[in-house]
């Protein structure tokens, strides 16, 4: 024992001396011999280059391996049925384990199976934590790479199918501002064909909409914002009798999509009292967003449940779709937190796992999207004298200053860029929340389609720009704001 320790100490000492001697020699040569210096520089460069080449190759090989592994993992369709998912999960994990035990050559194969298990596991984040503790580093690196690539592939292919072809528009990365050489891009909509003045470009239903509190005493359909005046058989929610609808279809759709979570007449006492509070805060006329967000989350859950029942797992969720739109970064207010907590209790508690999903960060992100993208609905009735954003702190895109009945959030129309001299305009032909986008100027195929977020009229540029900055954090570079001077 003693001897070996001693031997080790001696060995270290000798080695230390030897290398020190080498360093001294090296330093002497470097200081005194110019050709040696040049040679050394060359050698150093060569070594660096060689090292970079090797790193490049291994990095490239790793990328190829990750890409190939992901393609293999997603080649066979994943089961949708719970029992089959469980079966596949267990098989994949045990296959993965036996493969990585067979050594380095089987690491990619092991990652393929672990990844398939991850795709069917209900809580992927939990499983990754387990993987981190049990799977060797190199395999884990491949799995994490596959995860990142999977998310990226999904994000990149989003615009392959969105917007739907029938909308006659395409989403495109466009240069920011008048200077087309500016490398900064924004996502916008371009025309898929030529349009003449007055042509209908598309018709779009919203994901969520809400009547302005300024019209709380007027009669409107709670779902589609249609004035009830002249409607022969309006319907009402049988449970709360607080909400009226223009038709039985609107009543049923509203109940199915979100009102089942938000009905103040609910048998559950705590749901009923939270729902009443939510309606009251709207009626007091401070904010539009809380009810729009509540309805949106309800609608999202309903859509998700239907999607899962239909087995359309590869389709994008409503949340993913919304996340592709722009948002405003908002500092959280105390009222936001109160609304978020109430919402998590109201809707989150009814669906396992959702209470945590509806955290403050997601609430604010959703609110930012509503304030950035929602469009004023002008469905007529008693709204003629109601100004945009009347009786509400929340602002929405509103090209007209009057006649605003409420606001709605549309997935495709969210991509319409602002211009003070737009070539299109939203209209509400059926006097409800369904938006019809009409061309107000001739538009050529490939040209960007724009709307005005504010009432332009004959207001001077500084006034328009100040409003755009305050409401939408937007610096407008349209031809009216920045005329092109040759
Ligand atoms: Zn209706
Ligand atoms: Zn009700
Ligand atoms: Zn402008």
TrEMBL record:
Its main location: mitochondrion. It is a single-pass membrane protein. It is found in: Mitochondrion outer membrane. GO terms for molecular function: mitochondrion targeting sequence binding; protein transmembrane transporter activity; zinc ion binding. One of its GO terms (biological process) is tRNA import into mitochondrion. PROSITE patterns: SET, ZF_MYND_1, ZF_MYND_2. It comes from the Eukaryota. GO terms for cellular component: mitochondrial outer membrane translocase complex. Keywords: Membrane, Metal-binding, Mitochondrion, Mitochondrion outer membrane, Protein transport, Receptor, Transmembrane, Transmembrane helix, Transport, Zinc, Zinc-finger. The chain crosses the membrane at residues 6-28. Signal peptide: none annotated. Residues 165-454 form the SET domain. InterPro entries: MAS20 (IPR002056), SET_dom (IPR001214), SET_dom_sf (IPR046341), Tom20_dom_sf (IPR023392), Znf_MYND (IPR002893). SMART domains: SET (SM00317). Pfam families: MAS20 (PF02064), SET (PF00856), zf-MYND (PF01753). Residues 221-263 form the MYND-type domain. Belongs to the Tom20 family. This is Mitochondrial import receptor subunit tom20. The gene is TOM20_2.
